[in-house]
Amino acid sequence: MEIVVGISGASGVQYGVRLLQVLQEKSCITHLVVTESARKIVKIETDFTPAEIDRLASRVYAPDDFAAPIASGSHLFDAMVVIPCSMGTLSAIACGSSDTLITRAADVCLKEKRRIILVPRETPLSLVQLRNMVAVAEAGAVVLPASPAFYSRPKKVDDLVDVLVGRVLDLLGLENDRYPRWEGNAYNRLNQNEGM
User: Fold this and answer.
1) In terms of C-beta density within 10 A (0-12 exposed, 13-18 middle, 19 or more buried), how is residue 181 classed?
2) What's the CA gap between 139 and 72, in Å, rounded?
3) How far apart are CA 70 and CA 73, in angstroms?
4) pLDDT tens digits along 88-117
5) Which residue among 10, 17, 131, 161 is least crowded, i.e. fewest CB within 10 A of its CB?
6) Are 116 and 140 in contact (CB under 8 A)?
7) Inter-residue contact 82 to 89 (CB < 8 Å)
8) CATH numeric code, 2-194
9) What is the C-alpha separation between 46 and 18, in angstroms, rounded?
10) What angle, rounded to 10 degrees, do the helices at 87-94 and 101-112 form?
11) pTM exceeds 0.70 for this model
12) Alpha-helical segments (H) within the chain
């Protein structure tokens, strides 16, 4: 599978790094675009260097490289994930502004009817942001907010990151065991076991 990964300038770059690690493990071809603000956030939020993150991808492009193959609909890639997706990037995608390589590749996905997953992390959300999410969803994108799930009983931050990355992999159609699947009402099962 050939996947474009965009990491934009929002908190939560750990999600993008983990996705790249897993896609590399799965031998996927990845095209990576990291914005300049995201590279700064990498240094603030993680122990990775931008160069280490670049090495997780098959190919890396500058945010303004409009000559990159992923800027054209004629280049056949399977899907795109913007993780995390800043509200500025989401807004640009919603209005069809192709001012960066990430937003241009997203525009390619929408016009070519390819899978695109946007992972916003912002909270709370303004009415403008909510309307932009509706606009991208109506255009064909999947909006997957970086909302943690706790039914898996996470023990550390990495567990929460893996749940979200696992959900992205599910949407990409890639088999994974990154997180425990929901198997019904755990509370009722616990009570039944105690009664035995």
Assistant:
1) exposed
2) 18
3) 7
4) 999 999 999 999 999 999 999 999 999 999
5) 131
6) yes
7) yes
8) 3.40.50.1950
9) 11
10) 40
11) yes
12) 13-25, 36-45, 50-54, 87-94, 101-112, 127-139, 157-172, 186-194
Query: In degrees rounded to 5, what are phi and psi of residue 160?
Result: -65, -40
Which are the contacts of 175, defined by CB distance < 8 A and separation ≥ 6? 169
Length of the chain equals 196
Backbone phi, psi, residue 92, to 5°? -65, -40
User: CA dist 149 to 53, 138, 152, 189, Å?
Assistant: 26, 26, 7, 19
Residue 177 DSSP label: -
Cβ–Cβ < 8 Å for 120, 146: yes
* Tokens representing residue 114 in the block: 């390819």
Q: Domain coordinates of the chain in residue numbers? A: 2-194
What type of residue is 180? P
Q: How many CA atoms lie within 13 A of 73 on its CB side?
A: 8
Written as six digits, the tokens of 132 are 């932009």
**What does the alpha-carbon distance between residue 112 and residue 58 come to, in Å, rounded to a whole number?**
23
- Per residue in 28-55, pLDDT (tens digit) is 999 999 999 999 999 999 999 999 999 9
User: The tokens of 83 are what?
Assistant: 């993780």
